[in-house]
Each structure stands twice: as structure tokens, then as C-alpha cells.
UniProtKB/TrEMBL annotation:
Name by which UniProt lists this protein: SpoIIE family protein phosphatase
Gene source species: Streptomyces coffeae
CDD domains linked: HATPase_RsbW-like, PAS
Gene3D superfamilies: 3.30.450.40, Histidine kinase-like ATPase, C-terminal domain, PAS domain, PPM-type phosphatase domain
Domain PAS: 161-191
PANTHER family noted in UniProt: STAGE II SPORULATION PROTEIN E, STAGE II SPORULATION PROTEIN E-RELATED
């Protein structure tokens, strides 16, 4: 039954992926389904990426909540039937590193069910995430129920009994197993059970059927591939035993998954009060006796209850529980009572024996007086505890943690208390390990979702400052309480403090001032987080000096600010501080510094996540640096191609407007120039090189410099352009066609101006007279860069007072809106309205007409050169 529904549509642009993730996250959190949010976000991200990025269509996302789970549907408008081929061995999706198929790969791994549906116009991929089941192994007596409320099964319930030996090979296969799966006993005995099992594993975890068979007891669901190749979901109950020869083996009871009620352990009943513990019979579960019922679902709650029960059981003053790392070399404090937990939480101690090491982790140990052996239990140093008993938590012989109870009086514990505590630890170890694996899986899925969003954000900018800000904002407060980013310009430069962020904005200035005064962390290219005591030492030294100075001044002379600011900064950086190198392209380009407030430590999972983030952020920061450097070089080279400051021409108004097409371009294929040739004579040019971008800009620079040089050598207009034509042809493959209007201008004493122009394939200059008439002021001649032998000639024009000469490139006349084009006639109509306007006003009106002609921005370079001889009454 559908109980809620939400839908949204996202456009085919890159930012829609992040918007879709936010939509799904907000929807599921609003429904209170936090347990499956991370899986849903990761799957939605992949499927929407396929739709809006790869397929290039809009994506319709719909979330549907039902009684048993949530279904998310992602539809696009690219109904091509591309689905990976299913082989006999199951689904095959190709390499996880390939661009295609990863969304379906994740669906198969994370979703309870998924599928692809096609219509004539749409393709829809859907997945379903079921609500989490109650933890396996809980027990309770159920009430009497009417027949209609009892679980429904087939008429004949079959229970497959499969026994596997110490090598996980099948040794027993009953008739019900043959009926359920189609194999005879002769076909399967002696083969590994794992060859038949289809474990619904999740990427990043090591749990599977092989691991489950080694546990002393296990209960849950997986699939068995039958003789017909189909996978049948089953519910299984495993019990590890010893056979007649004393060798370990496992008995597996299996039923159809929908008949799980036959095997599934009932829910745990509410435990009696502690006062009734003496009345418990021999059938009472030791785990329930120790931990109480019901057991907490979350790891932190389970561990906290464990230490409290252990303290009460041995009448101690304090207790603590540590969990081992995967390699069993370190123990991490996860719960304590009677100790400064804020100072100890997530702190780590080595397992091996030695000063400051946890030497009694693998075996039960009793310390009658810790004052006789200082440092034997590092967690209890300076806590006032004198005696302690510690026992290991082990699962199948592997160290998973350590449990300790301490007292302030010496000699409180003996071997008898150690045996009692070890018995309790043996009962709780498996539950703790199962809860730890569940938490680890949740954290890994959350980390995957976090990294997906972080990568999306970092890839969305090439601005250095914005990249630095994103790095800090992604770590605070998710991974750390404060963050500082140092950057390194080159191999010989010292690190520079580039960005500082604190979760409390009022602490940022004080933190920045502190970090500015101390030496930056050492540049170490090796990966991983390393501790840095610099901020802690400096902050506490500054706070101590401020406090002493404040006391020495006396109350009457005490400064109004007092030591409060220094103490606040010291508290903000008083916890653990770590430095992660930012390494990109085998070079250290900076350091990411993360810190915690007083007495707090980092979780190892968060440090691993920060290390992964630092690698991605380093590459994004280096890309932003390279982009900035190349942009600066490009702009510098482009500016060198622009003419210097425009000269003043006596008796003539001159206005130039230049627009280069393309983002970040200052120079393109169009160009202009106005320069003095000799006393009383000025050269001007406006041209258009075939194409745009750097290649066209190179010919632009050649043309502009050649024109100036040849004109000042005394060559006339035709000779200048003929020699420029030869220079362009000499460029060979780099040459470009060039249209050019070149002229020489002589202002006259009577207020007029004489121009001699050569129009080599360029749009003809237009002359606007005082009466409003417009006419072409030159005749067309061949363009440059095509033929070797050119015969060009110049034409003389006299501009009377009030006349305007307008010269443009084809970016003006070829301005388009659909099939319409501005053209020469449109430009003439605009110029006709410019009678009496100054040269600057004429150029501005032409530019405004070009921009308004079409809604889209201009896609071609554009240059406008307007010259006007002012009338005598103009001021």
C-alpha cells in the first residue's frame, strides 16, 4: 500500500544531479527514513547523472513510500534499450571503472529490488530499499493469536538441512533440500556451499556466506541458486557444532524466505527488574542477564550500557570499553563511565606491551595497585584509580575489543572477578561485533554519499578562492571543528595560510591570528594524517601569558578585555590537530589542517574520509591554479596585441568599440588601430581575420605591427597592404584570410578632413552627411592572404564638417536572429538616425542596435570605428 509520494523534474544540466540528491535526501528525511537515506542518495545520483549528463534529457524522479520500503523511480526521455547482458552466472555489468553501467551495478549491490522499464518515449530505472529488519537473534514469547493472524506458508513446509564440514564443503543434504533446490545429494556433497549461495553483499564489507558459516550462530537471508539457474531467496539458521571426531562443522536449516516465521527467532521479551535476577532459571540467557533487555539497536547505546552493567556487576567506580582496529594493533576508546569521557573518547592506544601501551589486551589481567606500575593502563593515568581488571572481547579467536572495570581503592579485584567479567564479555562480544559492523557499513555508505557530493562541488569551479572555501566548508563541522588550509606556491616557497574556518564564526579571527603567528606545519609528501601540536602549544602559552599579565596588573588596572579571548582560542584548538598533505601531480601544493576543541579526538573513519577528500581537493585546487595561470598568461598575451593608448587627432572625433567573442578573450580575429604616421598624418585600420581564438589573434598581431612599421617607412596605402599580403602568405599553414580597411587621415585647416582608403575585401565604410544621407565611401577590392600578386589602389574621401565615416567588421553586419540578418541595409538604416550625434554617440547607437537585434549574445568578434569632423558651433 502506498502511504506517501513525492516527485520532481530536473533539467539536463550538471547542477541537476546535486539538486536531485537534495530532493531525495530531504524527502526521505522528512518521512523519517534516515536509515536508508545514504543508499537512496548514492543510487539516485548515479541514475540522474546517466539521464541528464550522458543521455542529455530531463530526469523525472519520484519517491514512493509503501508499507515495506521506499521505491525511487528515475525516468529519462532516451528510450534506447541499452541494458547489460545477463550471463548464465548472473548479472554482468562490465568493469566498475567504465562510464556505463555503474548505476545498474550499484542498484544490484544496494537495492532490495530494481528493474528497467521501457515505453516508446521513456526509459525508467527503479529501485526499492526495504525498511531495516529487527536484529537477528532477538527472542520473546509471543501472545496467543487468532488463526487469521498466523504466518501464511505453503501446504507443505520444507526445511532443508545442510551440514558443511570445517572446509565449508557440503557433507549432508536432505530430501527437502533436493525438493527446494533441484539438486540430488550426489550432485552437491563434497562441493562448497558458497558455490550455490548468492550472497546479497554490499560493496565495502567483508561479510558473506563463508564468513557467516564460521560464526557460532547466525540467522538471516540469502539466495540459493537452484539446478534451473534461478536464485531462490531463503531464510537460514546456522549453528556451529563439533562432530563425533571433534572437528567443527555447521548445520544450516533453510526455508523459503516467505516462510521465515518457521525458523526466525521471536522478538525479545521485556526483561524483569534486576531484583528478579535471583529467580531466573538455568534457561536464562547470560547475555540478557548481563546487558538487560531489550538491547540497544545502536552501537554507542550498546557499549554505554555494557560499561554501566560491568561497573555495577563488580561494584567498581569506573569502567570503559575499547574496540580494536582491523589489524588489532590499536584500541579505540568508545564508551566509559566514571572517567572524563570527553577527554578519552576516540583516543587510541597501541596493543603491544611497553611504556604507554596497552599490554593486557589479549588476556584477562588484574592490577591490584596501579601506583606500583605507572602507565600499565594509559587510560587511567591521573584519574585516581588504583585497581583494575581487564578482559578481552574476542569473536572466533580474533581480538575485537577490551573491557575494564576500575576502583579507587587498591586490591579490590582478584582472579574470581576477572572470570566473572570474562564470562560477561564472551556473551556480549558477538553482539558488539555485529553492531560495530552495522555502524561501519552505515558510515561507509554515508562517506560514499559525502564524497559524491564533494566531488560534484569541487568539479564545479575553477576559481582558486572558491575551491579553498569549499574545502573548508566541507570539513567543518562534518569532520572537524575548525580547519585551516595552507598553500605552497612552488618548491622553494614557504607555506602560506590561505583560508581559516571555525564552526563558531566568532572564533575565526582569533584562530587566524594565532595561526599567523606560528610556523606552518612541515611539508611532508607522504599520505595520511599526522599530529601537529603547534596550535595547541601556542594557544595555551598565549593564554598563560595573558592570565599572568592580567593578575600582575591587579584588579584596578586590569584591562577590560581580560584573558577571555585567549582562553577561548585555547579551548577551540585544545583537542587533537592533524595535518593532511595536499598532493597533486607528485607535488605538495598545500596542507589541510583539521582540529578539534579541548580534549576531543578524531575517529579513524573520519580521518580516512578526510584523507580521501584531501586527495580530491588537492587535484581540484591544482586545476584551479593551472587554470588561473593559463588565463593570466592568455590575457597578458592578448593585451599585448591590443593597440596602445588611442592618440588625439586634432579636428576629428574618433571613437572605437571592440568586443571579442568567447569567454576570457580580450582579442579575437577582429582588430583596429589608430596611430600617428608623421606630423599632420594619421593611419587607421579595421580588419577581420578568418576565424576566432588564438590562431586568429596571432595574425591580428602580425597585421597591426606590420601596418605601423610600413606606414612609418613612408609607403602608401596600396604598397602597405601588398607587403602585408606577402607577410601573411609567408606564414604558410598558419596563415589566415584577412579583410582589411586601411586609410590615412589628414585634418585640414578649413575644418574638413581628407582620407585615403583601401578596402581589401572588407565591409565598405559608410559616410553619413549632414542632410542624413548615407553612402558607401569606397569600392571593394580583393582580400589579403589569398593571392600573391595584388594590384590595389587607394581612394580619396573628403569629410566636411558634420560628416561621419563609420567602419565596422562583419560581426556587426552579419548579426543574426534566426533567418534574419542585420546586413548592410540594416546598418544604413541605423546610421541614418545618427545625424548630429558625436562619434561616441554614433558608435554607441550602432552597438545598441546590434545587441538588440537578437536575444542571444553575439557569437562573432566585433569592431566599430566612427570618425566625425565636428561642426564649427560644436563645443
Amino acid at each position: 500500500m502506498i502511504t506517501a509520494r513525492a516527485a520532481a523534474t530536473f533539467e539536463p544540466v550538471g547542477r541537476s544531479v546535486a539538486a536531485a540528491r537534495t530532493f531525495v535526501r530531504d524527502t526521505l528525511q522528512g518521512w523519517g527514513l534516515t536509515d536508508i537515506v545514504d543508499d537512496a542518495v548514492v543510487l539516485t545520483s548515479e541514475l540522474v547523472t546517466n539521464a541528464v549528463v550522458h543521455a542529455g534529457t530531463t530526469a523525472d524522479v519520484e519517491c514512493i513510500r509503501a508499507d515495506t520500503g521506499v521505491r525511487v523511480e528515475v525516468a529519462d526521455r532516451y528510450p534506447e534499450r541499452e541494458l547489460p547482458v545477463q550471463s548464465n552466472g548472473g548479472h554482468h555489468f562490465g568493469s566498475p571503472d567504465s562510464e556505463g553501467g555503474r548505476g545498474l551495478l550499484l542498484c544490484a549491490a544496494l537495492a532490495a529490488r530494481w528493474g528497467v522499464e521501457y515505453t516508446a518515449t521513456h526509459k525508467q530505472v527503479w529501485f526499492q530499499l526495504d525498511f531495516p529488519d529487527r536484529p537477528a537473534g532477538t527472542r520473546a514469547a509471543g501472545p496467543a493469536l487468532p488463526a487469521s493472524a498466523l504466518p501464511l506458508t505453503d501446504a507443505r513446509v520444507r526445511v532443508a538441512v545442510v551440514q558443511v564440514d570445517s572446509g565449508a564443503l557440503i557433507s549432508t543434504w536432505n530430501d527437502d533440500a533436493q525438493e527446494l533446490f533441484g539438486y540430488t545429494a550426489e550432485q552437491v556433497i563434497g562441493k562448497p556451499l558458497t558455490d550455490l549461495a548468492a550472497w546479497p553483499h554490499t560493496p565495502g564489507t567483508g561479510t558473506g556466506v563463508a564468513e557467516a558459516l564460521r560464526l557460532s550462530r547466525w540467522e538471516g537471508s540469502y539466495g540459493i541458486r537452484g539446478a534451473d539457474g534461478r536464485v531462490s531467496p531463503v531464510y537460514a539458521s546456522h549453528l556451529r557444532i563439533r562432530d563425533a571426531q571433534g572437528d567443527p562443522s555447521t548445520v544450516c536449516l533453510l526455508v523459503r524466505d516467505h516462510e521465515r516465521a518457521v525458523l526466525q527467532s521471536p522478538l525479545r521479551a521485556v526483561a524483569p527488574d534486576s531484583g528478579e535476577s535471583a529467580e531466573r532459571g538455568p534457561a536464562s540467557d547470560a547475555f540478557e542477564v548481563f546487558i538487560g533487555s531489550p538491547a540497544p539497536d545502536d552501537l554507542d547505546g550498546l557499549l554505554q550500557r555494557t560499561v554501566e552493567r560491568a561497573r555495577d556487576m563488580l561494584d567498581g567506580d569506573a569502567a570503559y570499553l575499547l574496540l580494536a582496529t582491523d589489524d588489532e594493533t590499536e584500541l579505540e576508546v568508545r564508551a566509559s563511565t566514571g572517567l572524563p569521557s570527553a577527554r578519552q573518547r576516540f583516543a587510541r592506544v597501541p596493543v603491544e606491551a611497553g611504556t604507554g601501551r596497552y599490554g593486557s589486551a589479549r588476556m584477562p589481567a588484574v592490577h591490584e595497585d596501579l601506583s606500583a606500575l605507572p602507565g600499565a593502563v594509559p587510560l587511567l593515568v591521573n584519574t585516581g584509580m588504583r585497581s583494575v581488571v581487564t578482559v578481552p572481547l574476542k569473536v572466533e579467536g580474533r581480538l575485537t575489543g577490551s573491557l575494564g572495570v576500575a576502583a579507587e581503592a587498591p586490591g579490590r579485584y582478584s582472579n574470581e572477578e576477572a572470570l566473572r567479567l570474562q564470562f560477561a564479555a564472551d556473551r556480549i562480544a558477538l553482539a558488539v561485533e555485529r553492531a560495530r559492523l552495522t555502524e561501519l557499513e552505515r558510515l561507509r555508505r554515508g562517506s560514499l554519499s559525502f564524497l559524491v557530493e564533494a566531488s560534484d562541488l569541487l568539479a564545479g569551479t575553477l576559481d582558486r578562492d572558491q575551491t579553498l572555501a569549499l574545502m573548508a566548508q566541507m570539513t567543518v563541522p562534518t569532520l572537524a571543528s575548525w580547519c585551516a588550509v595552507y598553500t605552497v606556491a612552488d618548491q622553494v616557497s614557504e607555506p602560506e595560510l590561505s583560508y581559516v574556518l571555525h564552526e563558531d564564526e566568532d572564533r575565526i579571527d582569533g584562530l587566524k591570528a594565532l595561526l599567523t603567528k606560528i610556523d606552518p606545519p612541515e611539508q611532508v609528501p607522504t599520505g595520511g594524517a599526522r599530529s601537529w601540536s603547534g596550535p595547541y602549544d601556542a594557544a595555551h602559552a598565549a593564554a598563560l601569558r595573558t592570565s599572568l599579565r592580567s593578575l600582575s596588573l591587579g584588579d584596578s588596572a586590569r584591562p577590560s578585555s581580560g584573558p577571555g579571548a585567549s582562553l577561548a582560542t585555547a579551548s577551540a584548538v585544545g583537542g587533537e590537530t592533524v595535518v593532511l598533505p595536499l598532493v597533486a601531480r607528485n607535488r605538495v601544493i598545500g596542507m589541510l589542517t583539521l582540529g578539534k576543541p579541548t580534549d576531543e579526538h578524531f575517529r579513524q573513519e573520519n580521518l580516512e574520509l578526510a584523507e580521501d577528500l584531501s586527495r580530491r581537493a588537492a587535484l581540484a585546487l591544482d586545476n584551479a591554479r593551472l587554470y588561473s595561470e593559463r588565463t593570466a598568461i592568455s590575457q597578458s598575451l592578448q593585451r599585448s596585441l591590443l593597440p596602445p593608448e588611442q592618440p588625439e587627432v586634432p579636428g576629428v572625433e574618433v571613437e572605437v568599440i571592440y568586443r571579442a567573442a568567447g569567454e576570457g578573450n580580450e582579442v579575437g580575429g577582429d582588430f583596429y588601430d589608430l596611430f600617428p604616421i608623421r606630423d599632420g598624418a594619421y593611419g587607421f585600420a579595421i580588419g577581420d581575420v578568418c576565424g576566432t581564438g588564438p590562431e586568429a589573434a596571432a595574425v591580428t598581431g602580425l597585421a597591426r605591427h606590420a601596418l605601423r612599421l610600413l606606414a612609418r617607412e613612408g609607403f602608401g596605402g596600396p604598397a602597405v597592404l601588398e607587403r602585408l599580403n606577402a607577410a601573411i602568405l609567408d606564414e604558410g599553414a598558419r596563415s589566415r584570410f584577412l579583410t582589411l580597411l586601411y586609410g590615412e587621415l589628414w585634418p585640414q585647416h578649413d575644418g574638413s578632413a581628407v582620407l585615403k582608403v583601401v578596402c581589401a575585401g572588407h565591409p565598405l565604410p559608410l559616410r553619413l552627411r549632414q542632410d542624413g544621407s548615407v553612402e558607401a565611401a569606397a569600392e571593394p577590392q580583393p582580400l589579403l592572404g589569398v593571392m600573391e600578386d595584388l594590384e590595389l589602389y587607394e581612394q580619396t574621401i573628403t569629410l566636411d564638417p558634420g560628416d561621419v565615416l563609420l567602419c565596422v567588421t562583419d560581426g556587426v553586419t552579419e548579426r543574426r536572429e534566426g533567418t534574419r540578418m542585420l546586413g548592410d541595409e540594416g546598418l544604413t538604416d541605423v546610421l541614418t538616425t545618427c545625424t548630429g550625434l558625436t562619434a561616441g554617440a554614433v558608435a554607441a547607437r550602432v552597438l545598441r542596435a546590434v545587441e538588440r537585434f537578437a536575444a542571444e549574445p553575439p557569437s562573432d568578434d566585433m569592431a566599430i570605428l566612427a570618425m566625425r569632423v565636428p561642426e564649427p558651433h560644436d563645443t
